[in-house]
Write a structure and sequence with these properties.
Blueprint lengths: L18 H6 L16 E16 L2 E8 L8 E4 L3 E8 L7 E4 L22 E7 L4 E7 L3 H4 L5 E7 L8 E10 L12 H6 L5 E4 L2 E2 L1 E6 L4 E7 L6 E5 L4 E6 L2 E9 L2 E3 L4 E6 L8 E6 L13 E9 L28 E10 L2 E6 L5 E2 L3 E2 L3 E8 L5 E5 L5 E5 L2 E2 L8 E4 L4 E7 L5 E7 L2 H5 L3 E7 L1
Parallel strand pairs: 1-4, 3-8, 9-13, 12-20, 21-25, 23-32, 24-32
Antiparallel strand pairs: 1-2, 4-6, 5-7, 7-8, 9-10, 10-11, 13-18, 14-17, 14-19, 15-16, 15-18, 19-20, 21-22, 25-30, 26-29, 26-31, 27-28, 27-30, 31-32
Bound molecules: CU-O-CU linkage and copper (II) ion.
Length: 455
């Protein structure tokens, strides 16, 4: 859906990132100093095109994929590398690629606000330095409710110089697909605008009914991306404990043992899976009931299966301290300098979703270097995953009660009627940026804000 009132600001900011000054600004993860690797250019071609996608044995659907794949290819590179992406648009409509979670120059953010849409038959080259290690993703940022649903998304993994050792690394991109009675990707329904679109086919890496095997005694690193339009994933492995090691912005301070974790649309989590001792066990990779809106009755659903295979030796070692997350705001009361209200309004086409009473809100500029403390106030009765482009934030309070940040985030859930306080500092990357609800239908129906970062 086209945004109501966007201006295409011609990129004035530099197209490359000066890593030394970026790190000095302390606006995100503390980089490792041990790197000795020569930075490289990583070239990737992403041709967006129609494809007959086999999402289950013998079951295909007409989808859209980068390189004809759903998800698109996993891009892997190292911190400091320059990623060069050749986008070719072979779709029947314009497109653009957004690099979700990356601290890149505004001109490379891949939205309609910073570049012209890439028309059918046209190409565009993205080129930017990768400053941070972590699990990121890329996706279309044009007509998203259609283009992402049809398959235009993929994972981007950036490796740091001193990653913890695991017995295996996996990337799992979760997506649900809504099919109509003829087995085609369903058209947008009116109800989707209210609650967001959820599909009946649950895919991991583009396939339904995925089965994985882990050797007994081994520990694997799983990087998980929620690419669903609206579905929340309250991830569980049949109730067994696992350890969270990373969030949106790379490794967290230390591993945290849990039996479940919530991934909103747009969210990433990195977890240590295993060790399991019961060879032959079958563990459900599932999503527990989560009630994000009063309009939908939640169900527990299974995404795939994890089998425990024959025992094998392990080389995994997870250090007690994984990363240092320097707090942006010292403990104690924190006064917000901005209020972002998430709201809704009934209209003739159902609902508009609002920021500070407006669709596609134009927010005040943010000054480079100035500490931002924003209260994200959810005035609705429904959860919204709030996503900020281009900058990492720390969650510093929930309903006014201070929390101690242990990770960097770019997407945070704001429960109905809740206030989440985030803090971030804009480093020197001036230009046009945005924030929005990552339920794609809400974003399209107006729950987004534009703002300028200015010197
Ligand atoms: Cu994944 Cu504008 O976002
Ligand atoms: Cu929303």
């Amino acid at each position: 859906m086209k945004t109501a009132c966007h201006q295409v600001a011609l990129p004035t900011a530099p197209a490359t990132t000066d890593l030394a000054s970026l790190y000095a600004a302390r606006s995100g993860p503390t980089p490792s100093t041990t790197t000795t690797r020569e930075p490289q250019e990583v070239h990737v071609t992403l041709e967006a095109r129609e494809t007959q996608w086999e999402f289950a044995p013998g079951r295909t659907v007409t989808a859209w994929g980068y390189q004809g794949l759903v998800p698109g290819p996993v891009i892997v590179a190292y911190v400091g590398d320059t990623l060069v992406v050749h986008l070719k648009n072979d779709l029947p409509e314009p497109t653009v690629i957004h690099w979700h979670g990356l601290r890149l120059p505004a001109s490379m953010d891949g939205t309609e606000s910073v570049q012209l849409l890439v028309q059918p038959g046209e190409t565009f080259e993205y080129r930017f330095v990768l400053p941070d290690a972590g699990t990121f993703w890329y996706h279309s940022h044009a007509n998203e409710t259609v283009q992402i649903e049809r398959g235009l998304y993929g994972a981007l993994i950036v490796l740091g110089p001193d990653e913890p050792t695991f017995d295996a690394d996996r990337v799992l991109v979760l997506d649900d697909l809504k099919l109509d009675r003829k087995g085609r990707i369903a058209k947008t329904a009116l109800f989707d605008r209210h609650s967001g679109r959820e599909g009946q086919v649950l895919m991991i890496n583009g396939r339904a009914d995925q089965a994985f095997e882990i050797a007994a005694g081994q520990i694997e690193r799983w990087r998980i991306v929620n690419a669903c339009s609206a579905r929340y994933v309250r991830l569980s492995f049949g109730g067994r404990p696992f350890r969270i090691i990373g969030a949106d912005g790379g490794l967290r301070e230390s591993a945290m043992t849990v039996t479940e974790t919530l991934l909103t649309p747009g969210d990433r989590v990195e977890i240590a899976v295993g060790p399991f001792e019961d060879e032959g066990a079958e563990i459900a990779i599932e999503s527990l009931k989560y009630r994000r809106t009063m309009m939908k009755w939640p169900r527990r659903v299974q995404w795939g299966t994890l089998r425990v295979g024959p025992r094998a030796p392990s080389v995994a070692s997870i250090p007690a301290t994984l990363a240092t997350v320097v707090p942006l705001v010292p403990p104690g009361p924190a006064t917000p300098n901005r209020i972002v209200r998430l709201g809704a309004r009934m209209t003739f086409h159902g609902h508009d979703w609002l920021i500070n009473d407006e669709t596609h809100h134009h927010d005040a500029p943010v000054k480079v270097g100035e500490l931002q403390i924003w209260n994200i106030v959810n005035e609705t009765g429904m959860d919204h995953p709030f996503h900020l482009h281009g900058f990492f934030f720390q969650v510093i309070a929930l309903d006014g009660v201070r929390t101690e940040p242990t990770s960097w985030e770019d997407t945070v859930n704001v429960v109905g009627k809740q206030t989440v306080t985030i803090a971030f500092r804009a480093d020197d990357r001036p230009g046009t940026w945005m924030y929005h609800c990552h339920i794609l239908e809400h974003h399209a129906a107006g729950m987004m804000g534009h703002f300028e970062v200015v010197r």
